[in-house]
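Letters spell out the chain; backbone shape is given numerically. Both lines appear below:
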Amino acid sequence: MIQTPDIERPSKELIDGLARIGSATASGELSRLGIRDPQIRGPRTWTPGKSVVGPALTLQFMPKREDQYRVDEYADPEKQLHRHVLYHTQPGDIVVVDARGDLGSGVFGEMMLTYFKGRGGVGVIIDGCIRDYPKAKDLDLGLWLQGVTPNFHTQTNIFPYAVNVPIACANTLVMPGDIIIADDDGVVVVPITLASELLAKASEHADWEEFSRMRLAQGGDLRKYYPLSEEARPEYEAWRNGQSSTDGTGNGHG
């Protein structure tokens, strides 16, 4: 019987907080925390307008060699590790796949993605392809892909090799349980060890950007309001305190 490890999931409060900041703010703040380039480049959104934040289940593919992998699409399905990564799915999870940029293998199809959705999964990041896209796009999952194909997952050059191990998704390191922030700007990997610090810094950033956006829309001086200058900070603090008292949160809109 095949057994694969699960991941440790962050608190709902942490995920909900990060869901408010977006990939662009996360990337910029992570660079200031020492992560120079947290973006997974290559996969792009195939579900425009969709944004997801959640912990990463990881799946690693390797080049296919026949002595290592002889299984066809339906033979002995329990040996197919792309199924096993989905068995771990809990609500809010995102599956991240190092499929080696292969454009001839559909890592998941409609049935597998329907299962993932039914288990509460919210997004799929693949350095490669899915198949059955005309139906998969209607599942209300976030899909960030290199492309689509009619081929099944092991039809051509690759096969699933490991579940919930460190992977290089489009040459970006993803550790099992890292937090993924994905939207129309792209996909950002948040190291779990930096997630709480990122949330604190990004929430402040999101607040002053909201204030600055409002002032710029009113014709305010770009040099004063973006980035927020020390001259504008008292004005910002007064605005923020006013927002806090209005919404009752004590911490503004961030």
Observations:
- Residues 249-254 have pLDDT under 50 and may be disordered.
- The longest helix spans residues 195-217.
- The helical segments are 12-18, 22-32, 81-87, 110-118, 133-136, 195-217, 222-225, 233-247.
- The CA atoms of residues 69 and 139 lie 31 Å apart.
